[in-house]
Amino acid sequence: MKDLKTIRGMPDLYDVDIERIALVENSCLEVFKAFNYKEFRTPVIENKSLFQRSAGETSDIVQKEVYEFEDRNGEKLCLRPEGTAGLVRALITNGLISEEIKKFFYIGPMFRYERPQKGRKRQFFQAGVELIGESSSKSDVEVLLIAKTILDKLDVKYCLEINYLGGEKSLDSYRSYLREFLQANKSEFDEKLYSRLQRNPVRAIDSKDENIKEVLKNAKDITNFLSEDEKLAFAETIEALDLLQVEYKINTNLVRGMDYYTGTVFEFTVDSLGAQNAVIGGGRYDNLIEELGGRKVPAIGFALGIDRLSEIVAIQDANNDIFIGCADVKSIKYAQYIGNKLRLNNNNLVIENYLGNANVSKQLKKANSQGFKFVIIIGQEEQNAKKFKVKDLQKDKELTLNEKELMEYFDGR
To answer: Which run of H or E residues covers position 310?
Structure first.
């Protein structure tokens, strides 16, 4: 039927695509759990006001990219465009904000209405961590180490870019300065762009627009507006990274895309994804919990683009172990019995029980093409004698084993 097609920017995932995504997800899970972070799942649908309050009314996410709709009661809802705000809302809703340090992770789909391109889809997948309740550089370093460990585990070459935005007082001073600077250069912008930059001038600092970059290259950076305490806090984070031999680059133009960021912000970028080269991004959001109605609690986190990373990770060949074929249709049930017994004996084995009608020669070709290490062909003779010919495809040799020997042979492989 004509209407049976995928929605633009929301592709079906299968075969090697899903293998790559699963590799990234599993690596994230292993690292999150190794750092003792606990999973948190939130709904994919939230009130739109949540993201207006967290990401900011002037952010591209809220202005252009939110999938929004009204339900039958007239409530304005949206598909979640990112993970942090929903998790913070959940902590407040469930009364989980306390003095105790909390460590959570999430994995799931996010949605943004934007032009699909390399590294950007309308439905995409993110994994992230949130460390709640600690304001010092210790929390900055731990979150950065988690991100680094995931990329190292996936053997991805990256560059860590880091900056420090300061608190509200420093940011307000910086905004005021930038508004004056932009006003002095108003003739360089059209009225609509100028108006947008005036509403949120800090967002202009890391703009990809060449005209904006050219105008702002002579503007002061955020470091000129930080307090001594803020400079010291950032220095402590940098000192810890040096001690841990974590390579980084200080990028004073890095601000990230959400209004809730304060203090340390960072991105891990790669060279192989073109313009959309950030695969992990995050930072501190020490005011967000209070702004959404909770207590004043510091926090830091990051989001990792699973889809983006999946495009560049190297996947290993399939780890297929035993292909069990049949010489005739009557032998299939017994072959399934042997296959099941092998799985019960060693649940790490990947075993294919062939269920088709192809002859033995074609079954062997199929086993070879799918990378199986061993082939067992079962017919009436094997069923009666309870002995099986095991063909080792890698070493090109054959063994004859009874049922007990067969189980022992594949035990622990």
So the answer is: helix 306-310
Judgement on whether residues 140 and 44 belong to the same structural domain of the protein:
yes
If one counts the domains in the chain, the total is 2
State whether residue 63 is helix, strand or coil: helix
Residues whose CB is less than 8 angstroms from the CB of residue 369 and which lie 6 or more positions away in sequence, other chains included: none
Same domain, 124 and 74: yes
Give the domain CATH number at 387. Answer: 3.40.50.800
Distances (CA, A) of 238 to 205, 295, 300: 22, 29, 16
DSSP characters for 157-171? Answer: --EEEEEE---HHHH
Does residue 394 fall inside a structural domain? yes
Query: Along the chain (413 residues), what's the average pLDDT of each consecutive run of 10 residues?
Result: 82 92 97 98 94 67 76 93 94 92 97 81 96 95 98 96 93 91 86 81 80 86 94 96 96 84 94 81 94 93 95 83 94 95 94 94 94 95 93 93 94 79
pLDDT tens, position by position, 276-286:
789 999 999 99
Quick: pLDDT tens for 221-270. 999 999 999 999 999 999 999 999 999 999 998 988 777 889 999 999 99
204 in any annotated domain: no
115 in a structural domain: yes
Q: What does the pLDDT look like over 51-60, one tens digit per residue? A: 888 765 555 5
- How far apart are alpha carbons 125 and 350 in whole angstroms? 28
94 DSSP β-pair partners: none
CATH number for the domain including 96?
3.30.930.10
Rounded Cα distance between 51 and 45, Å, is 11
> Using one digit for the tens of pLDDT, what is the confidence trace for 58-80?
555 556 688 888 999 999 999 99
Considering the domain architecture, whether residues 286 and 347 belong to the same structural domain is answered as: no
CA distances from 273 to 278, 283, 291, 351 (A): 8, 22, 35, 36
Q: What is the amino acid identity at position 135? A: S
Partnered with residue 377 across adjacent β-strands are: 325
Is 178 inside a domain boundary? no
Strand 322-326 and strand 299-305: the pairing is: unpaired
Same domain, 363 and 234: no
Range of the domain at 47: 15-166+226-310
The residue from 310, 339, 356 where one domain ends is 310
* pTM, two decimal places: 0.89
Q: What angle do CA 235, 238, 242 make, to 5 degrees?
A: 135
